[in-house]
Fold this sequence. Notes:
It contains 39 helices and 29 strands. The chain is α/β, with parallel strands linked by helices. The chain folds into six domains: about 5-215, Rossmann fold (3-Layer(aba) Sandwich); about 220-365, Rossmann fold, CATH 3.40.50; about 400-475, Winged helix-like DNA-binding domain superfamily/Winged helix DNA-binding domain (Arc Repressor Mutant, subunit A, Orthogonal Bundle); about 485-535, no CATH class; about 615-795, no CATH class; about 805-940, no CATH class. Helix 24 packs across helix 25, helix 37 packs across helix 38 and helix 38 packs antiparallel against helix 39 (about 920-940). The longest helix is centred in the last third of the chain and has 20 residues, at about 635-655. This is DEAD/DEAH box helicase.
Amino acid sequence: MSDAGVVDAFSRLSRPVRDALSERGFSTPTEPQQRAIPPLVAGHDGLVIAPTGTGKTETAMLPVLSAIAEADHRFGISALYVTPLRALNRDMRERLDWWGEELDIEVDVRHGDTTQYRRTQQADDPPDVLVTTPETLQAMLTGEKLRRALSDVHHVVVDEVHELAGAKRGAQLTIGLERLRELAGDFQRIGLSATVGDPREVANFLTGGRECDIVEVDVTSQVEFTVREPRVRESDERLSNELLTSPEVASHVRAIREIVDDHDSTLVFVNTRQTAEALGSRFKELDANIGVHHGSLSKEARIEVEDQFKAGELDGLLCTSSMELGIDVGRIDHVVQYSSPREVARLLQRVGRAGHRRDEVSHGTIVTGHPDDTLEALAIARRAAEGDVEETPIHHGSLDTVANQIVGLLMDFGELKAYRAYQIVTRAYPFRHLDEETFKAVVEELSRNRVLWLDEESDTIEKSGGTWQYYYANLSMIPDEETYEVYDVASGRQVGTLDERFVVNFAEPGASFIQRGEMWRIAEVDEEEGRVEVSPIEDPSGEVPSWTGSEIPVPYDVAQEVGEIRDVVGPQFESGAGVESVARDLTAPYPTDAYTAERALDPVERTVEADAPVPTDDRVVVESQGRDIVVNAAFGHRANETLGRLLSALLGQRTGSSVGLDVGPYRISLEVPQGIRASDVLDVLEDTDPDHIRPLLELSLKKSDALKFTLSHVAAKFGALKRWKGRDGVGLNRVMAALEDTPVYDEAMREVFHTDLDVERARDVLARIQSGDLDLVVHGRRTAIGVGGRSSGQELLTPENADASVINTVKDRIEDDRVRLFCVHCQDWEHETKVSRVQDQPECPRCGSTMIAALSPWADDAVTAVRAEEKDDEQEKRTERVYRNASLVQGHGTKAVKALVARGVGPQTAARIINNHRENEADFYRDILEREREYARTKAFWD
Length: 943
């Protein structure tokens, strides 16, 4: 960079800003400042893509502050700084306050926690620059005084725009900005973003498709990654006893602690809050100087650990995705990612937080725990080094967002022509292809729900009695799920929050759990106040709080690279090469050591040794044993979810029985009824028309919990449903039927497809299978690759007694299972139903007997054996088991039914579970879970 170029970048700014730069000690601009300041000073819209710590905030704000300082008059708010997290507001305020004081420019913050007194002050005497959130902007657009203040906006900066681009709240913001444009006229739009795979698409999202200068700083030359699976040492055996966990997990804890000890300040990223709490509790046991930070902690608790880390009082900070978004916690010299980050963008953003000095390389270590995890992390690390980043999944045409913003326009205008509203909405990039007919259907639905009035003759929409109430209840597009505040009885301080499902299903006086890495015992639950009183305890057997939230999906391209690695190493093993030499070859293109590579390749080597086919990027291997069928397919979460749902629906249709489904990025696991074989899976994959995938899935989704859950939230955004509290599905089934031909249902279906499924990829897979371009192979036994997977590492941090989320999953699954009730007395009555609908004491409606067996829906052989007049030895055994089954149900009612429908549990095992005399329901399900785990461990050896 030449001296002339450096001078040129800052010389574009006004004299007061240049003087302030000199006083601040800014002599040399960073790369994004050097490249972006000139076009931004010229008034161009701009998107600045650069890593955290490269001065992005100043890149955007120095030209804005320069323009404000030079302005002839300041009537209202000159600039808005929109950020997705309230926590970022505090940082922005602190960083911008200095500039404001130097330039005599007033900077203020406004969000949901801003006091009414301060809001009134801002309305009466607007600041020059206002830092706010997307939701608070929605509220500001409706205030009479604030509208006058907003009419003077000349600049809008959107921070972390990549985060908003993939969310409905971002889609809402794009229309909000068009509403602001109606008020203030054209204004400059500046977006700040982490690395994205499609910069032009994100720029269009920001500007509505208008011209935009993109300044992208190459981050790949400034990051280095290491992927390692810690080797279990002798000391880890002792540590595992101390931490009440496995030696493998102990080795992870020890390895992370060693990294933290070797550096001054380390961020340790994990993928879920549950993992943060579980890992944090282990570090606390070791008195490690490591804090915990995630979104379910109270604001005070988060600020406390942020300040402690920034001040150097903590050596490390365990955190989740909220710390990706540039919260200022001082200088970071290393980042640990615990387990695969699942996405390239996520890894770049997290590791990019380390090393904030000019030209300093950011270092990150990915600590992995099992083969899939390691291979996935290797693929992501290599792709990150190449800058091969995923595209941003913008919510195009989300109809509940349209509904929400039509009401917003009514709040702005009082009344307006429906077509005028349509023109404003479709200026926003995610809604540019929305057709008039669909828009009209949304307006009509809102009118039916009395959220607004529609005068069809004049094509005018007007406020109704419910408009105001609806709008302020729906400022946010984030799903409305209640949380309970957790308070320490002794200090009165808020500890954090728990989600409603956890409280309802688990929280009761005496129960213990982990939060902030500490153990707590529940003293009292106040349902009306939404408050849980707790006290600290030292008991290490506490349960980990459960937060709702879907797993981060592994993209198709990452999963394909894992398949490519198998494709490369498989033939090497087949030719007789040893794992040491194959692993050594893998360390050349990938950033790992020989031991980690050997561990990752072990299942491939064992699969080859068993003379089984290796699944790759272009080979799908279907393996089966008993009722378990696994489709090994390296297509990522969403494509596999699509194929899995298709297989489950079509195989279930053939038998009239439900098919169990578990999906990961490399496997589709099916638990099938008797009579279904691997060849039936092949038939579906080879015979289903690829163009029929979507309509077939739409039919199968009608009964799914995923659609019901999504529909409840979408219906609320249309004003069609008060917040659904029942959670029993009964009310929603009726609501679904009533809404089926409305935009509410269409949007719920669109969202499920957008979030969970990838029809195009699945369609491509079927087309490639049917053209012969993709190999489809059947193997009659389970393979080392097929039995592996994410699930083998999923419970690494789960205490042996299982946490509440696991217990609730077991309970929900069992109650949702179907059972065949059969009267062994008269042998004339049988009835199939859900377990949850079985009476406390089942009774035959024909003969009145209570000798009712609880059998599998496909237990035809057992029923035939009981009814047979002449029985062979096998039928005698079956009959005896059925009578023992019925005797248990007669003596213990639904408790016996629940035990008997568990996987791998027969009458003898069910009797042992019942005879444990568990008074606590959770302990009863723990016993069932332990038996199911035992069955899962041993079933491969059964006939």
